[in-house]
Amino acid sequence: MQHHAFVRYRELFLTAWKRSFFRHPLWVFGILASCVTTGGLIQASGQTFSNITSSRNFFEQIYATPFLGQEWIAHFIERMQGIDPTRMVLVLTGLTVLMVLFLIASFVSQGGLLHGLGAHKNSFKENLQHGVSSAPRLFLLGIFVRAVQWILVLGISVPLAVATIDSTPVIALVYVICFLIFFPAILLLHGAAQLTAIDIVRYKRSFHTAFLEAWRSTLKNWLVIFEVEILCFLLVALAFTFVLLCSLLLTVPFIVVFLIAAAIGSSGLVITTQVVGVLVFAGVFLAFLGAATTFQQAVWVELFEKLHVAKPQLIAKLERLWSRLWSHN
């Protein structure tokens, strides 16, 4: 993999748009793959801040209470006493099986989505087959990334919890230093994981070999990756705002029909309006989720290809400058 890249962002996003928007079957993979990752760096940042807050509360509880989780365990035991044991076992077993199947479907969908985006014309069945073959390595990659991410989160949350309990200047300085070190590392880890997943699906490498190569490339092109992800977030945020406004306008006819049905006392029409409204808005939400995930993954696929065929930065910049001068003339 070439390590230095000079990316034309307009070309990258237009290509990603063509790869994702006009290939609606891939949105099905995108909906399920969004449970594993959407490919958005801002989402990874939000999850990191959430994990930091949760970990801080966890360590504060250790410091403040004599018995870890005492109140939660007492409440759990109280609730469990009123449930039939056989019913409880069946419910927990069913939920566990559903969660495992859903997790498997998410990794299979991630592999199928990445393969479909990398190929020009592939059937749904072929993408699904490649997703199935890539799912075990993607699962190992996901476990590895989550484990490393939580270690880095602990490196931020422990000083934060200590600073909350004992706010001295030295501890505050330690927290700032840890944050400046570990938080960028988490974002770089997320970028490397995206490139690794594409490498696994496309070249069928083991996750550790692909990750080492992707990590080296991420360190060399960290600025390009951050810039692409910020622009990608802005585009998805604008699209979400547009879809939200359209959804609000879409509620108007449902509200009118609902008020008419309530006025004439037609319970059947009221229930029908509610059911149709829920189905329509659920369909809009799932379609946007699938399209947004597919688009963000398409951006990563396009960036992955740019890193593979990238020219040296100086040559790329000179060619870009020359093309601009030539277009003006």
Task: Walk me through this protein's architecture.
This protein has one domain (9-317). The protein has helices at 9-21, 25-33, 41-64, 70-80, 85-118, 124-165, 169-203, 207-220, 222-264, 267-309, 313-328. It is globular, with a radius of gyration of 24 Å. It starts with 8 loop residues before the first helix and ends with a helix. Mean pLDDT is 78; it is low at 58-69 and 310-319. The chain has eleven helices and no strands. With 329 residues, it is an all-alpha fold.
Layout of strands and helices, then pairs:
Layout: H1 9-21, H2 25-33, H3 41-64, H4 70-80, H5 85-118, H6 124-165, H7 169-203, H8 207-220, H9 222-264, H10 267-309, H11 313-328
Helix pairs in contact: 1-10, 2-5, 2-10, 3-6, 3-7, 5-6, 5-7, 5-10, 6-7, 7-8, 7-10, 9-10
Can you give the mean pLDDT? Answer: 78
| Overall tally of structural domains | 1
Helicity, as a percent range: over 70%
Q: Uncertain spans, ≥5 residues at pLDDT below 50?
A: 58-69, 310-319
What count of helical segments does DSSP give? 11
